[in-house]
Specification:
Elements (H helix, E strand, L loop, with lengths): L2 H17 L8 H9 L2 E5 L4 E3 L6 E8 L2 E6 L5 E7 L4 E5 L10 E4 L3 E7 H10 L1 H28 L9
Antiparallel strand pairs: 1-8, 2-7, 3-6, 3-8, 4-5, 4-7
Helix pairs in contact: 3-4
GO molecular function: DNA-binding transcription factor activity
Keywords: Activator
Organism: Sporolactobacillus putidus
Length: 165
Protein backbone atom coordinates (compact mmCIF):
# COMPACT_ATOMS: atom_id res chain seq x y z
CA UNK A 1 0.00 0.00 0.00
CA UNK A 2 1.39 3.42 -0.90
CA UNK A 3 1.90 6.21 1.60
CA UNK A 4 -1.17 8.01 0.21
CA UNK A 5 -3.33 4.93 0.84
CA UNK A 6 -2.14 4.73 4.42
CA UNK A 7 -3.00 8.37 4.99
CA UNK A 8 -6.47 7.74 3.57
CA UNK A 9 -7.04 4.77 5.88
CA UNK A 10 -5.71 6.68 8.90
CA UNK A 11 -7.83 9.68 7.96
CA UNK A 12 -10.95 7.52 7.81
CA UNK A 13 -10.08 5.83 11.12
CA UNK A 14 -9.60 9.18 12.89
CA UNK A 15 -12.82 10.52 11.39
CA UNK A 16 -14.70 7.51 12.75
CA UNK A 17 -12.94 7.84 16.13
CA UNK A 18 -13.89 11.54 16.30
CA UNK A 19 -17.53 10.72 15.56
CA UNK A 20 -17.90 8.16 18.33
CA UNK A 21 -17.04 8.37 21.97
CA UNK A 22 -14.76 5.81 23.58
CA UNK A 23 -17.33 5.58 26.39
CA UNK A 24 -20.09 4.04 24.26
CA UNK A 25 -19.78 0.71 26.11
CA UNK A 26 -20.94 2.29 29.38
CA UNK A 27 -24.63 2.26 30.20
CA UNK A 28 -26.18 5.67 30.74
CA UNK A 29 -26.56 4.90 34.46
CA UNK A 30 -22.93 3.79 34.91
CA UNK A 31 -21.52 6.72 32.93
CA UNK A 32 -23.61 9.05 35.10
CA UNK A 33 -22.16 7.38 38.23
CA UNK A 34 -18.63 8.07 36.94
CA UNK A 35 -19.50 11.67 36.07
CA UNK A 36 -20.96 12.22 39.55
CA UNK A 37 -17.54 11.56 41.10
CA UNK A 38 -15.58 13.97 38.91
CA UNK A 39 -14.28 17.43 39.68
CA UNK A 40 -14.35 19.69 36.63
CA UNK A 41 -11.12 21.54 35.80
CA UNK A 42 -10.24 23.98 33.01
CA UNK A 43 -7.05 23.58 30.95
CA UNK A 44 -5.81 26.26 28.54
CA UNK A 45 -4.62 25.28 25.06
CA UNK A 46 -1.16 23.69 25.19
CA UNK A 47 -1.32 22.85 28.90
CA UNK A 48 -0.10 19.49 30.18
CA UNK A 49 -2.84 17.52 31.88
CA UNK A 50 -0.31 14.95 33.05
CA UNK A 51 3.23 13.92 32.16
CA UNK A 52 4.65 10.51 31.44
CA UNK A 53 6.01 9.29 34.78
CA UNK A 54 3.48 11.18 36.93
CA UNK A 55 1.55 9.03 39.44
CA UNK A 56 -1.34 7.35 37.60
CA UNK A 57 -4.03 7.93 40.17
CA UNK A 58 -6.77 9.62 38.13
CA UNK A 59 -8.96 9.16 35.09
CA UNK A 60 -10.08 12.08 32.94
CA UNK A 61 -13.31 12.76 31.08
CA UNK A 62 -13.37 15.32 28.24
CA UNK A 63 -16.35 17.62 28.73
CA UNK A 64 -15.20 20.16 26.13
CA UNK A 65 -12.16 20.47 23.89
CA UNK A 66 -9.54 18.14 22.42
CA UNK A 67 -6.70 16.29 24.16
CA UNK A 68 -3.58 14.73 22.63
CA UNK A 69 -2.00 11.64 24.17
CA UNK A 70 1.61 11.08 23.13
CA UNK A 71 4.91 9.43 23.95
CA UNK A 72 8.14 11.41 23.76
CA UNK A 73 11.24 9.79 22.24
CA UNK A 74 14.80 10.38 23.41
CA UNK A 75 15.47 12.46 20.27
CA UNK A 76 12.74 14.91 21.26
CA UNK A 77 10.13 13.72 18.75
CA UNK A 78 6.59 13.02 19.88
CA UNK A 79 4.58 9.99 18.83
CA UNK A 80 0.87 10.84 18.98
CA UNK A 81 -1.21 7.84 20.01
CA UNK A 82 -4.69 9.28 20.49
CA UNK A 83 -6.78 12.39 20.24
CA UNK A 84 -9.66 12.59 22.70
CA UNK A 85 -12.78 14.67 22.15
CA UNK A 86 -15.91 15.40 24.22
CA UNK A 87 -17.38 12.38 26.04
CA UNK A 88 -14.08 10.47 25.88
CA UNK A 89 -12.44 8.96 28.94
CA UNK A 90 -8.65 8.74 29.17
CA UNK A 91 -5.88 8.10 31.65
CA UNK A 92 -4.52 5.09 33.49
CA UNK A 93 -5.02 3.68 36.94
CA UNK A 94 -1.98 2.00 38.44
CA UNK A 95 -2.18 -1.75 38.75
CA UNK A 96 0.20 -4.66 39.22
CA UNK A 97 2.74 -2.39 40.91
CA UNK A 98 3.13 -0.01 37.95
CA UNK A 99 1.74 3.28 39.12
CA UNK A 100 2.93 5.88 36.61
CA UNK A 101 1.40 7.26 33.44
CA UNK A 102 2.94 5.69 30.34
CA UNK A 103 2.14 8.70 28.15
CA UNK A 104 1.77 12.48 28.31
CA UNK A 105 -1.59 14.22 27.82
CA UNK A 106 -1.80 17.84 26.58
CA UNK A 107 -4.76 20.04 25.76
CA UNK A 108 -4.87 20.81 22.03
CA UNK A 109 -7.61 23.39 22.58
CA UNK A 110 -9.00 25.10 25.66
CA UNK A 111 -10.53 22.17 27.55
CA UNK A 112 -12.98 21.39 30.29
CA UNK A 113 -11.95 18.09 31.86
CA UNK A 114 -13.60 16.01 34.56
CA UNK A 115 -11.01 14.53 36.94
CA UNK A 116 -11.96 11.23 38.58
CA UNK A 117 -9.71 10.08 41.45
CA UNK A 118 -8.61 6.43 41.53
CA UNK A 119 -10.23 5.86 44.94
CA UNK A 120 -13.62 6.93 43.54
CA UNK A 121 -13.26 4.60 40.53
CA UNK A 122 -12.25 1.69 42.78
CA UNK A 123 -15.24 2.25 45.07
CA UNK A 124 -17.65 2.34 42.12
CA UNK A 125 -16.14 -0.79 40.56
CA UNK A 126 -16.23 -2.72 43.86
CA UNK A 127 -19.92 -2.06 44.32
CA UNK A 128 -21.12 -2.42 40.73
CA UNK A 129 -20.35 -5.59 38.72
CA UNK A 130 -21.98 -4.13 35.59
CA UNK A 131 -19.72 -1.08 35.69
CA UNK A 132 -16.72 -3.34 36.33
CA UNK A 133 -17.49 -5.33 33.19
CA UNK A 134 -17.99 -2.15 31.12
CA UNK A 135 -14.74 -0.74 32.53
CA UNK A 136 -12.86 -3.87 31.40
CA UNK A 137 -14.33 -3.35 27.91
CA UNK A 138 -13.08 0.26 27.97
CA UNK A 139 -9.58 -0.83 29.02
CA UNK A 140 -9.58 -3.41 26.21
CA UNK A 141 -10.68 -0.80 23.65
CA UNK A 142 -7.97 1.64 24.72
CA UNK A 143 -5.37 -1.13 24.54
CA UNK A 144 -6.61 -2.08 21.07
CA UNK A 145 -6.39 1.56 19.86
CA UNK A 146 -2.79 1.73 21.06
CA UNK A 147 -1.85 -1.61 19.48
CA UNK A 148 -3.34 -0.58 16.13
CA UNK A 149 -1.46 2.72 16.19
CA UNK A 150 1.82 0.96 17.00
CA UNK A 151 1.24 -1.65 14.29
CA UNK A 152 0.51 1.01 11.68
CA UNK A 153 3.62 2.98 12.63
CA UNK A 154 5.75 -0.14 12.49
CA UNK A 155 4.45 -1.26 9.09
CA UNK A 156 3.78 2.05 7.36
CA UNK A 157 5.82 4.62 9.27
CA UNK A 158 4.77 8.15 10.01
CA UNK A 159 4.32 9.67 6.55
CA UNK A 160 2.70 12.93 7.60
CA UNK A 161 0.91 14.43 10.55
CA UNK A 162 -2.65 13.21 10.84
CA UNK A 163 -5.12 14.33 11.97
CA UNK A 164 -4.34 18.01 11.86
CA UNK A 165 -4.84 19.74 15.25
Amino acid sequence: MSGKGVIGVESAAYTIQDQMSNTSMFSEQNLKALKNTMTVTEFKKGTSIYWEGDPSDKLYYVVKGRVKLFKSAYDGKDLVLHYFTPNDLFGEIGCFGYEEYSFTANSVTDCTIGVIPEKEVEALLAGNPGLSFEFMKWIGLMNQYTQIKMRDLLFYGKTERWPPP
